[in-house]
Amino acid sequence: MADIQSEIRPSRLRRAWDSDLAWSFRHAPVAVVSAVVVLILIAGALLAPLIAPHDPFNPATLNLMNGFTPPGQANQFTGDLFLLGTDDQGRDVFSTILYGMRISLFVGFSAVLLAMVLGVILGLLAGYVGGWTETIIMRVADVQLTFPAILVAMLIFGIAKGITPPEYRDQMAIWVLILAIGLSDWVQFARVVRGATLVEKNKEYVQAARLIGRSPFAIMLRHILPNVLNPVLVIATISLALAIIAEATLSFLGVGAPPTKPSLGTLIRIGQEFMFSGEWWILFFPAATLLALALSINLLGDWLRDALNPRLR
Question: What is its main location (predicted)?
């Protein structure tokens, strides 16, 4: 009998495949291509130690004679061939991109996670508690919105780095960068969650939870939060691309990832120094990788926003 019921009941994988979200994804060619590009880039970053031909940050493996080797050409002194060429220090550009993406993706995901957690908590408190709590949180959000996010991130980065002991600054630079970007992006999460919470807290299921004696914390966590996650996921997807671009911007300006752990932004900053001397590939390939990554994530976010919008179904 159990075997018959298991055959009749569809598996979780089958139910997921037949869901509206999966159907929408399969019928959106732009989303499929974007997802493939993102998966390839993330896989390349995660498997960099296995895929990269060289370890670009190990001085013992570098040969200055390989410097400025054009893409796909053998070096005239050593005879070594590099797929995307080398930079001024003889580092393989393909390898530096793979390792640089690891830093950019780590900073992007961590910063968005920090901004999402902080924004969701403050948005729930502002929408459910109301009163002075809502006033203080939303006025702080309004003040922060008057400044460009990149300037807020630079300010937070400068303050955090200033209070860090000099001997730990390079070690803590990545974490300070995550803190700066995360604290500059929480506002949009808080505003959306606050608006959704104001709608949800007046519905019958919340009133019923109050009547049976559930605590405000339990109501916010167990009842309201699951019903406001859809817009949060959309914002998180789009914010990931913005966080990666913000990290690249800060690193390009010299206030982001340290030279010992260069990200895509650091590689672009290094490449622009040689742009007008003919070594175009040092700038072009890291910039093209950053563009492909950010654009693909943005397109996925646009599809997710449309797919989760009930008015468009």
Answer: membrane
| 70 DSSP 8-state letter | P
Name every residue whose Cβ is closer than 8 Å to that of residue 223 and which is 6 or more positions away in sequence. 200, 205, 206, 209, 214
Residue-wise pLDDT tens digits, 104-151:
999 999 999 999 999 999 999 999 988 899 999 999 999 998 888 888
How many Å apart are CA 53 and CA 209, to the nearest integer? 59
Q: What's the pLDDT at 254?
A: 78
pLDDT value for 139: 92
* Listed ranges 2-16, 46-60, 121-135, 162-176; the one with the highest mean pLDDT: 121-135
Domain CATH number, residue 121: 1.10.3720.10
CB of 280 closer than 8 Å to CB of 85 = no
The CA angle 182-188-190, to the nearest 5 degrees, is 90
Q: Is the pTM of this model over 0.85?
A: yes
> Which of these, 270, 297, 298, lies nearest to 286 by C-alpha position?
270
Which residues make Cβ contacts (< 8 Å) with residue 168, sequence separation at least 6?
none
| 255 found inside a domain | yes
State the Cα–Cα distance between residues 99 and 44, nearest whole angstrom: 9
Domain count along the chain: 1
One-letter identity of residue 85 = G
pLDDT value at residue 4: 45
On whether the CB atoms of residues 102 and 52 are closer than 8 A, the answer is no
Q: Examine residue 55 and state whether it is found in any structural domain, yes or no.
A: no
Compute the distance between CA of residue 154 and CA of residue 253 in angstroms, rounded to an integer: 10
Buried b / exposed e across 94-110, counting CB within 10 Å, b at 16+? Answer: bbbbbbbbbbbbbbbbb
